[in-house]
Amino acid sequence: MISKNAVFMEKLVAKLGKAATRAISPKLPLLGAALLFTFLAVTLIDVSRSPMTSWDMIAYTALAYEDDAKNKTDLHAKTWATVEENLPNEDLAVLTQGSPYKVRQYEDPEAFYSVLTFYRMKILYVELTSLLGDLTDPVRAQRLICMVFTAMVIGVITYWACREHILGYGPVIVASLLMLGFVPMAKNLSPDMMASFFLLSGMYSYIRGRDLLAAAALLAAFLTRPDNLAFVGVFFVFAAAYGPGRWIMTALFVVCFIVYKFVISGPEYVGAWIHLWFSHIEYVPTLVGFDPDYSVGMHLQIMVNSTIQAVLRETWIVYLFLLSSLFFGFIKIHYLTDRSRILLFAIFASICAKYLIFPHYEERFQFAYLAGMTLIFLMGLHAQRQSETQSGERKEIPLS
């Protein structure tokens, strides 16, 4: 038999818990925002103190100089001179030694120029690097771009969370960013953070019914990273099938497709298969005369190897599985608006479609999509909890 003291203590703890919840709940959005901006500050400090050094940064530096260079030899010399000015000797050694590819790229202007075709397609990032490179140099310009868009990504996530009343889930959002490799992506000098900002901006603009703004942002994301055409295409199909934003998203896809066809029609474009081979099978020292035949078996082998790498070295596949399980296990889909549902299904389908075509295993290629899914999940969770709370209050009224 339960003693009176035990019952008293149980009621006391329950009342104290409710009182604490009432006291803390109004402050949760403020605490969530503070946590996000603290996370941003720590990330920016880390980025400024220890930026990552990758070969991609060298390629974008070269493209920033391309219009002013006299020839390939001059472009090669100017690029490596700038890189040597900005990197310590140990980092420079990592980029110029250790493999035939690195040595050849450092020594041979023709081989160096041949691989720039992979990077030339990132039109918006290259143009911004070139523009800012006139004020400083392309390496410093890329560092500035990376830091600015890191702050802008946190800004759009915070704005999204604030408008949808999910800032109280700030710890969950920060934990998700850490799991999805936000900090390494911020330190890597590449177009990924810039593209993520435009993708997240486009996603939320669509949710809010601002279709023209969404289309403009998604077009910018495509021009920053053309592989985002996969998302634009899948998104257009879902919007066309279910209604909201149908015509604007159709126009967006048509524009992106035309631009993409124009880009790949250039004489220097080597094709998606060579890009896939280069990224996943072998860093060949030069692309001059390199033209392997397409192989379905090799494509499947790349996909299997990438999946193993994604599971063992990255977290995005596990994160996608857990998030999908939580979503469909605990969230009733009708708590989401039509636009949120369309966007959610389009994101999930585009992740799968993009991976089948070009199976990159790194998290940075999936970051914006999974961050968007996370925010939609929190929107659904918040709406469901609000509904359940209101239902509980209505049930308690007749009993009082």
Automatic annotation (TrEMBL):
Query: Out of the domains of life, which is the source?
Result: Bacteria
Transmembrane spans? 28-45, 144-161, 167-185, 229-245, 252-278, 316-335, 342-361, 367-384
Query: Which key words are in the record?
Result: Membrane, Transmembrane, Transmembrane helix
Q: Does the keyword Membrane apply?
A: yes
Q: Where is the signal peptide?
A: none
Would you tell me the protein name for this molecule? Uncharacterized protein
